[in-house]
Amino acid sequence: MQDPIPRLETRNLVRRYDGRLVVDDVSLSVLPGQVTCLLGPSGCGKSTTLRMIAGVEMQDAGEIWVDGKLVCDTVYRVPPERRHIGLMFQDFALFPHLRVGENVAFGLGGTADEKAARVGELLERVGLSGYDRNFPHELSGGEQQRVALARALAPRPSIMLMDEPFSGLDNRLRDGIRDQTLDILREQDTAVLLVTHEPEEAMRMADTIALMRDGRIVQQGAPYNIYNAPADRAAVSFFSDVNVVRGTVHGALAETPFGQFLAPGVPNGQAVEIVVRPQHVKLDFDRAGKGPVPTISDGTAVRGEVRRARFMGGESLVEFEMEFGGPRFKVTVPAVFLPKNGTPMWLTIRRDKCFIFPVH
Ligand SMILES: Nc1ncnc2c1ncn2[C@@H]1O[C@H](COP(=O)(O)OP(=O)(O)OP(=O)(O)O)[C@@H](O)[C@H]1O
């Protein structure tokens, strides 16, 4: 079977500001009814990418395709209003002098009756039936955001570009509006490209995550794959705290204070980093100066002393000063576990949950 044609595709987009490369060879695609999240730290070029797709900014190189048709390269350009792209940005800016209903109807064609029907349908969908004659300033922030959502959805865009659209909302409100927005977009088979710097938001919303750093896409894939098969150390630390142990490879085995780690294909003498998340470090009590016996799945235990323990709600975070030195080790325990400062414990690293990256 042939691969489906993406609703939206960028090919090798490049953008420079004053000679500085801020978007560097970005290729992305989004299928109808799917959400791709462009995830990365502030300033990595996410919004610039979105602005080029929206057509409000020109790329220096590369192409934008919609439904298999070229809409923009460096010569040819379909104007923004003919791209059938909806926009929803953090500063959603409703028109303050227009009533809610007029705001939602703003981009709609058709007869007055058709417009009124569509406005009524959308306001009901976002839980704001009966508010059509209110002015924006009479609504709360969350309600205004829902109006902005209704306005963006009204013309049934085939593509929706969203730039941190929920970041102005408090947590509880945000989850509800986020889920509701996705439901509506999926129902309409809209392709969504969402920009965020929050890994949780990307994990929650995306079918595909494109991890962006310094203008480049460093990894692209399903959230599960990005989380469990990260491309490099920075990709691991973007999603959670990490512990890092250094080692050197001999005969495809990395030697470290925690014992040996398999390092297939890594040349002799190569320095590597073993990266492990706090939830994948195992703890054992000290028994008269002894720890657990080494095993194949967990390797050798190393002793550390508790320096800090905090209860975080669903789990406890314990920090250790390790006998071999280096930065403190962070360990999370899914329970209330608050050992005293100075308590000796033995730490092991789960071999099936750690990542090994060469140090360059
Ligand atoms: N019009 C402009 N002129 C010059 N530099 C710009 C312009 N717009 C953005 N930049 C720079 O380009 C880089 C990428 O900006 P962009 O807004 O795309 O990043 P971002 O990943 O969306 O960040 P944020 O999440 O903070 O919005 C930044 O270093 C920014 O300062």
Low-pLDDT runs? none
CATH topology of the largest domain: Rossmann fold
Task: Give me the secondary-structure category.
Answer: alpha+beta
Number of helices: 8
Coarse shape: elongated
Ligand inventory: adenosine-5'-triphosphate
Give the tally of structural domains.
2
The whole-angstrom Rg is 25 Å
Give the end-to-end Cα distance, rounded to a whole number of Å.
41 Å
CATH architecture of the largest domain: 3-Layer(aba) Sandwich
Strand-residue proportion: 25-35%
> Briefly, what CATH class of the largest domain?
Alpha Beta
Elements, N to C (H/E): EEEHEEEHHHEHEHEEHHEEEEEEEEEE
Strand order of the largest sheet: 6-7-8-3-9-10
The CATH homologous superfamily of the largest domain is named P-loop containing nucleotide triphosphate hydrolases
Helix content: 10-25%
Please count the beta strands (DSSP E, at least 2 residues each): 20
Question: What's the average pLDDT?
Answer: 91
Could you explain the architecture of this structure?
By secondary structure, this protein is of the alpha+beta class. It has two domains: 8-237, P-loop containing nucleotide triphosphate hydrolases (Rossmann fold), CATH 3.40.50; 240-358, OB fold (Dihydrolipoamide Acetyltransferase, E2P) (Beta Barrel). It contains eight helices and 20 strands. The strands form four sheets. It has a six-stranded mixed beta sheet, sandwiched between helices. A five-stranded antiparallel beta sheet has the order 13-12-11-14-20, with no helix packed on it. Strands 15-19-16-17-18 form a five-stranded antiparallel beta sheet, with no helix packed on it. A hairpin with a 4-residue loop joins strand 16 (302-311) and strand 17 (316-322). Helix 3 (112-125) packs across helix 4 (141-153). The longest helix is centred in the middle third of the chain and has 17 residues, at 171-187. It is elongated, with a radius of gyration of 25 Å. The model has no long low-confidence stretch (mean pLDDT 91). Bound molecules: adenosine-5'-triphosphate. Residues 17, 22, 40, 42-48, 197 line the site of adenosine-5'-triphosphate (ATP).
